[in-house]
Amino acid sequence: MSTPTEPSGRDHLAHLLWEASARVLVFAEPDLADTQLSLMSIGALENIAAAPGLTASDLARMSFKTQQAASQVSSRLERLGYVERKVGAGRGVGLHITKTGLRALQHGLAKEQQLDRRLQELLGRDRYDELSMLLQRTRTLLTDATAQ
Known about the structure:
Helix content is 68%, strand content 8%. It is mainly alpha-helical.
């Protein structure tokens, strides 16, 4: 049992961030229902488009996912025809977005915008802006704190 000065584990910030993230994934399901993409795969496509030749290991580091999870996402994107693997100079096999992948990415980004509008409606404009600003600052602080 927690005391008034000690939040329960569910109220610790790390837990709240994890839980909010999980609930956003569930909230996003209607927006992504007509696409073969998840929020993670949209992010992976965006990273591959921005830096052709990324490896699954690169994606894992960028998304803070395991190597196995990043490999599964990149393999799925390849099966869908959204990315292709090409032998790179000294870096092994790199991922490159295809024309079909670029169209899928544009569709996915539109779906993310749709999700963002629904989140804004749910939270209200002021709370949405405040939370967005706080999370952007938190991302910067955590990025700096974890830089190696």
